[in-house]
Amino acid sequence: MDSTPSRSSSSAFHLVSRALGRYIPRGGADAGPAGPADAQGDRTTRHPVPDNSAASHQEQILGAVNVDRDLIITRCNLDAPVFAGLDAVPGKPFIDLLPPWDVPTVTRRLRQVLESGEAHVARIQRLRRSDGSELVVSLSILPAAVPEEGLTVSVIAMARRLHLYAAETAIGTSLDIGETAQSLAESLLAWGDVAAVDLDFAVWTGEGVTGQVQRRIRLRRAALVPDRAWPEGYVTPGDDLPSDASRLLAQAVLQNDAPQIIVIPDREAVERVLDSPRVVRALVPVDRSAGVACIPLVLDGAPPVVLGVAEVWRRADRPFRDSELFDLQELVARTAHHVDLARQHQREHTQVLALQRRLLPRTGGDTIEIASVYQPATPDSAGVGGDWVNSFPLPDGRTALVVGDVVGHGLGAAATMGQLSMEARALLSAGLGPDEVLEHLDETVTLLDDAESGLAAGYSALGSTCCIALYDPVSHHVALSSAGHLPPILVTPDGHAGPLPLRPHPGLGAEFALREPFDVHTFVAAPDSLLALYTDGLVEDPALSIDEGIDRLAAAVSTVHPWDTLQQAARHVVAELAPMHQRDDVTLLLARTIGYRKGDTATLRLAARYDAPARARAQVFALLTQWRTREATRDKVVLLVSELVTNAVRFAAGPITVRLIRSGNGLLCEVGDTGNGRPRLRRGDLLDDGGRGLSIVHRLTTRWGVRWTDTGKVVWAEVAR
Question: What is this enzyme's class at the first EC digit (predicted)?
Answer without folding.
Answer: hydrolase
